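From the shared-data thread, chain only:
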Amino acid sequence: MARRIATGAAFGGGGIGLLAGAAVGVVLAEVALAKRTVGGGGGAPQVPNADGLYGTAFADGTPPLRLGMLGDSTAAGQGVRRAGQTPAALLASGLAAVAERMVTLRNVALPGARSDDLERQVSLLLADTDRTPDVCVIMIGANDVTTRMAPTTSVRYLSTAVRRLRTAGAEVVVGTCPDLGTIEPVYQPLRWLARRVSRQLAAAQTIVVVEQGGRTVSLGHLLGPEFEANPRELFGPDNYHPSAEGYATAAMAVLPTLCASLGLWPESDHPDASRNEDILPVAKAASAAAAQAGTEVTGARAPWALLKYRRRRRLPSPVEPAPNGSHTTP
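Structure, as tokens:
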């Protein structure tokens, strides 16, 4: 199914039905119930602005690395109140610590965005040719599922965004569609259907991203069994967006791939058989990654891809904007 979605996106196919028609009535009733429950917890009213300079302790005259963040509310950091708690700030701090180099962050993600907003976001990042990002992280897909955007259309927009960024010279890491079946107020059978559709979209995203020269990390149930085991701690007050601890868990899983894309991660890019890593056809690698959170997929020699489980490294302590607007990494 993921390959069919990706192929349909490449050749202009229409939407591919993912749900049986007989289940529509039950699903619509479950959706109505979920909408009354999710989002009612009074999360942070505004997304904190985490743009700025990180790792000033490493200032040595070397120009800072430029990190761009794109996507939806998860990429923006909806649900937390401090800039240092957003995934973009955590990734910028972690990248600075690993590279021992300053990092300039620009986050153009928008809460509520679907994949069709990526065109605007990419244009914002590439408007100044003197500030083209060295690497970009994209987190997108959840709103495509909840608004029933055709999956072929969704991945077509993502493929175009990755291609534009890669053509401009940026490395690209995509956190694929999270598993919406982990949202606690969502009940069966909607939970099962949401999980199925989310994973199919995530696998299709992986295929098109790898084909455009990017890397993906499966967000799955937002990167770790911690979310299912501790939903009260790792989901925010609205029961939908991650809490500060949840974002830290997600960022810790994305950081190794982010650093590896720039040649900064010490682990080998060869498969480790002891950890069930392998080189597989890209569609099989995408399907395997969608089923296991935190899995990286990167291109090998077409049509093969490397399936990898990178060891996580604990992030530096969250940092906050200094009075002058810069950020420091402890």
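The two ends are 46 Å apart (CA to CA).
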